[in-house]
Write a structure and sequence with these properties.
This protein has 230 residues and is an alpha+beta fold. It has a single domain (10-149, 176-229), classed as Dihydrodipicolinate Reductase, domain 2. It is built from five helices and nine strands; from the N terminus they run E-H-H-E-E-E-E-E-E-E-H-H-E-H. Strand 5 (110-117) and strand 6 form a beta hairpin. It is globular, with a radius of gyration of 19 Å. It starts with 9 loop residues before the first strand and ends with a helix.
Length: 230
């Protein structure tokens, strides 16, 4: 709908991913898992990164990031468990506001994305498996259900693709640069939470020369940790 301009000129987007972290793996103590521990790269900013991935994919890499949050609950963890971000993405040389809220707290879980334009809006509800659209001029509302969708098929397809890449039969659908970009957005949000200021972000993630020193250190630390776990 965005590519076909069905929503008109985009005016904003709101994305939410909230899920009670003790429910993720009920068979183990959540407070000792990687999601809950800073030394394991935990925290909703670095764990719930899919929203950062597809926000950049849909709306472009943000040039400015502002974030508020931290460890705001009484859960037993030492990482951020609730963060709200405001991204300034670029659409037709305009700054498009994209709001993203991530948390470890919601039960039942919520995972939604709503995009607003001057000719309509679209809302996706992951858990309800529904897409709702509304056209401003005609006032027509449509609801799309994805019958027969099995969430586990996504993971099976991902594993098949991963194994095919290892065999050399396929090339990765997701380049490393996109993963680095999402990490840089998360680290920029973390920096913004600490400073209370918006953080400027280069749109060229693979150039260390364009990465602020504080983010270079965090990226190096992250790479070192990932290498030690390989």
């Amino acid at each position: 709908m965005i590519d076909e301009n069905e929503l008109g000129q985009l005016a904003g987007a709101s994305i939410v991913n909230g899920e009670y972290v003790p429910d993720w793996h009920p068979y183990e103590n959540y407070s000792t898992t990687h999601a809950a521990r800073r030394e394991f790269g935990g925290g909703c900013l670095k764990i719930q990164t899919h929203e950062l991935d597809y926000a950049s994919w849909l709306f472009g890499v943000p040039t400015r990031v502002f974030a508020v949050g931290g460890h705001l609950s009484r859960l037993e963890l030492d990482v951020d468990d609730s963060v709200s971000l405001l991204l300034a993405c670029q659409q037709d040389e305009r700054a498009l506001p994209v709001q993203i809220h991530l948390d470890y707290l919601q039960r039942p879980p919520q995972r939604t994305c709503e995009v607003i334009g001057d000719e309509g809006r679209v809302r996706y509800d992951y858990y309800a498996n529904v897409v709702e659209t509304y056209q401003t001029k005609t006032r027509v509302r449509n609801t799309h259900h994805f019958e027969g969708f099995d969430r586990n098929d996504m993971f099976l397809d991902e594993l098949r693709h991963f194994l095919a890449c290892l065999r050399g039969d396929e090339s990765s659908l997701i380049p490393l640069s996109e993963g680095i970009q999402s990490l840089r957005i998360a680290l920029a949000a973390e920096s913004s939470m600490k400073s209370g200021q918006a953080h400027e972000l280069s749109t060229q993630p693979t150039s260390a020369a364009l990465t602020p020193p504080s983010l270079q250190t965090d990226l190096q630390t992250s790479r070192h940790y990932q290498g030690s776990q390989a």
